[in-house]
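Here is one chain, start to finish.
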Amino acid sequence: MNPDKKGELSRLSSIILALGVLLIGIAAIGFYLEIKKSIERGEGVQEPFWARCVENAIIISAREDLNDVVVGGKDREICRFDRIGKGSEEVCYLNSDILNETRVFVVSAGEIKKAVVCYQPVKPVPMGGD
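Its structure:
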């Protein structure tokens, strides 16, 4: 290949690379500004509650006052709380029969429902041996 053409290709690829980096930088700045703008407007999603499974219990953490909170699984009610105050937590204890029947539960408060999965701990298997 002609040395002049090699030089032209090298310059062209350098220009294309620089242009690509510039466009990525502009996109990153635009993304940052959009996120900053949405945070300033307070458009962040504010969940009214969180629910998680810890061992044999579902813990419900209220970020706002909640009324008529129900924990259910397999079309049956397991726990019910008339009210959980903002900043408070409630615990729904699960017995082994319920956990053997299902590991997926639904926590509902008003119109909002959240699915909670309770994982069974894996027992360690000894290495080697008989």
